[in-house]
Inverse folding.
């Protein structure tokens, strides 16, 4: 295997595995910047995966190659609705954020499989017909070497995700809305005094995380898993959360961290095809992403700082 | 506004269960099932025969242990989602020990195996405790990651066991019942269910943990650290050491639960698709129990009835088993959002008071409100 093919394989599979994590980690960033810890990202991804797969199975014959992209929208809508549960619980009903997030994680697989059983009469769906395939970036793919390893047979959604990360960074740090969102995560009391609607802003933060988490789940299901079952999403939501922490609650940082997690996840899959790595027992590659997550938290958590009012309920005094 | 916190946790938990069951009923209704038939079939499958009652008690065993484990960690301010992984390593370690020592007398091998399982779980719990105490790494994420590490690592360990211990690549041979926690007396009492000595272990452990937490210095320190680590440190306690100890006890109980699963319920090890569900269910049991040890017993009973009954639902009424997990999650939702329940209770009380005021006749009964007023007057 030539160096060029090896790099091309590694980079394209990294991008495929990173894309869902990037979207979801960005979602988490919005929620936590608004002051709501969202452990429920895993559950949100599960519901997004459910929606994406069901949409794909139902409409593949009508929309053809466009189906997976529309499936992302289906994932976003269901993610939005599902995250409303978290918003209502934490913002309005003053629930503990971790408990509410855990409820989402318990609820999502059960609800998803329940509905799948009703719709298809079995615990997991068939494989979807329309996948996100590989894509060559027009123009850029023609560049020698660089073009081959980065822009041929690559993942279109990953490049979209990277662009979205920069847009998210602009929204969060350069717009009036971003400033307001961050202020309710840092000091809701002060924001309230200045006339901002703390509850509405926190709802917005959580709902954005629902949309992005739903997209992440739908993307994972339609580009990697290929169907929906109780074990479609196995920790990707939590990994996204770790990516967000690793990226210091900063969209571009979260994106970079998600790329790293995507890389380590993809190694478990393509490692067998690579020289040297194919000597390593599969189980080590399988647990590597999880071990890295722990190590990264240990090394970086002390240095990174969460928004000051992250996870703290704001009770407006009357 | 003070009134909102004046309601007992028992009342709130009861209402949370009621609302959770209502959510389940609505979901059944919307998806075309008759909720009454559904719930009747659930109760019948759970309590319809002595065999099923035995299975309910059997399924309480790991739930009591993991819930107690969760509660100890929670008292120290830890949210231990890693119970599932801790159960899994306890299950593997204990059962593996008996599998390779079948020549040893069960009077020795079984107690040793149970201890080894508990220790494996304890190590698995101590690690995230130490990582947070030492480095500030959020245990919410590290425990979840450790669940996956335990899951895949454990599966690889099982698949790598010597061929003579295996029936298939994913499943070990079954232990003879004399080399296990099974006890004929318990099985015969319950129509041949898998109820075993693990249940007795769980009850004893629950009482012991209650004693440790409420009556010993260690328990006091754990609770103090959970309430206010800075104050605890100021009072001369080592917040770090106490936190790690609490997580170790938590993991120990989960490991014990794993030992009862391996040596009491299944009598073998088989590779899993996800970390054992009892870990997550135990967390739900503890949250429903809202900090009460007696509450753990009843919450475990309720969730066992739901889960054993849920298995019978598809056959009897066509409702998929997963409905039970939706109900469980809903119950915990209402526990978390208990502010809602308290608001409703306040509303009911106020309506009551208004109606009484309207009547303006007859001697006033002493109600909750009056008591509250008296308290405030003091």
């Amino acid at each position: 295997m030539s160096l060029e093919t090896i790099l091309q394989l590694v980079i394209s599979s990294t991008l495929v595995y990173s894309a869902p994590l990037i979207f979801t980690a960005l979602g988490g960033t919005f929620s936590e910047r608004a002051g709501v810890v969202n452990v429920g990202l895993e559950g949100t991804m599960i519901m997004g995966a459910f929606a994406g797969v069901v949409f794909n199975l139902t409409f593949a014959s009508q929309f053809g190659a466009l189906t997976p992209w529309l499936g992302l929208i289906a994932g976003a809508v269901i993610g939005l609705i599902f995250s409303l549960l978290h918003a209502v619980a934490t913002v309005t009903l003053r629930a503990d954020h971790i408990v509410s997030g855990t409820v989402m994680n318990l609820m999502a697989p059960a609800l998803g499989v329940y509905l799948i059983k009703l719709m298809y009469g079995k615990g997991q769906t068939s494989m979807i017909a329309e996948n996100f395939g590989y894509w060559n970036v027009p123009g850029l793919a023609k560049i020698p070497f660089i073009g081959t390893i980065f822009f041929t047979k690559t993942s279109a959604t990953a490049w979209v995700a990277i662009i979205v990360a920069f847009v998210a960074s602009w929204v969060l740090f350069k717009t009036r809305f971003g400033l307001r969102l961050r202020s309710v995560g840092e000091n809701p009391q002060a924001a309230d005094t200045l006339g901002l609607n703390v509850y509405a802003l926190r709802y917005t933060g959580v709902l954005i995380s629902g949309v992005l988490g739903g997209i992440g789940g739908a993307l994972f299901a339609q580009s990697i898993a290929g169907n929906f079952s109780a074990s479609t999403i196995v920790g990707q939501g939590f990994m996204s959360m770790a990516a967000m922490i690793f990226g210091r609650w900063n969209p571009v940082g979260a994106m970079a961290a998600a790329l790293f997690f995507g890389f380590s996840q993809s190694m478990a899959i393509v490692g067998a095809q690579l020289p040297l790595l194919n000597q390593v027992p599969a189980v080590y590659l399988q647990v590597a992403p999880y071990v890295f997550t722990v190590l990264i938290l240990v090394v970086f958590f002390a240095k990174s700082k969460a928004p000051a009012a992250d996870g703290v309920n704001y009770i407006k005094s009357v | 506004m003070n009134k909102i916190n004046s309601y007992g946790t028992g009342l709130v938990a009861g209402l949370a269960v009621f609302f959770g069951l209502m959510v389940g009923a609505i979901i059944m209704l919307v998806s075309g099932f008759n909720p009454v038939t559904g719930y009747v079939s659930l109760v019948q499958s759970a309590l319809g025969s002595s065999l099923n009652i035995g299975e309910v008690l059997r399924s309480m065993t790991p739930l009591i242990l993991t819930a107690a484990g969760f509660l100890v960690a929670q008292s120290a301010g830890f949210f231990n989602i890693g119970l599932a992984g801790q159960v899994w390593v306890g299950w593997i370690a204990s059962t593996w020990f008996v599998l390779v020592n079948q020549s040893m007398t069960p009077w020795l091998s079984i107690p040793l195996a149970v201890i080894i399982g508990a220790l494996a779980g304890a190590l698995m719990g101590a690690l995230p405790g130490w990582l947070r105490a030492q480095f500030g790494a959020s245990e919410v994420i590290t425990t979840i990651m450790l669940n996956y590490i335990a899951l895949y690592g454990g599966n690889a360990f099982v698949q790598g066991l010597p061929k003579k211990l295996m029936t298939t690549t994913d499943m070990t041979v079954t232990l003879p019942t004399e080399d296990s926690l099974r006890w004929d007396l318990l099985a015969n009492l319950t129509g041949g269910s898998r109820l075993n000595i693990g249940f007795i272990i769980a009850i004893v452990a629950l009482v012991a943990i209650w004693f440790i937490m409420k009556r010993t210095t260690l328990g006091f320190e754990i609770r103090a650290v959970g309430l206010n680590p800075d104050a605890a440190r100021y009072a001369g306690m080592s917040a770090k050491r106490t936190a790690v100890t609490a997580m170790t006890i938590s993991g120990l109980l989960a490991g014990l639960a794993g030992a009862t699963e391996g040596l009491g319920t299944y009598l073998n090890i088989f590779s899993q698709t996800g970390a054992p569900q009892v870990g997550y269910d135990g967390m739900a049991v503890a949250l429903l129990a809202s900090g009460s040890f007696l509450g753990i017993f009843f919450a475990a009973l309720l969730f066992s009835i739901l889960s054993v009954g849920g298995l019978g639902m598809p056959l009897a009424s066509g409702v998929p088993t997963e409905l039970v997990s939706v109900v469980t999650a809903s119950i915990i939702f209402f526990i978390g959002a208990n502010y809602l329940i308290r608001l409703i209770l306040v509303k009911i009380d106020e309506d009551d008071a208004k109606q009484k005021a309207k009547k303006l006749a007859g001697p006033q009964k002493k109600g909750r409100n009056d008591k509250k007023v008296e308290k405030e007057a003091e």
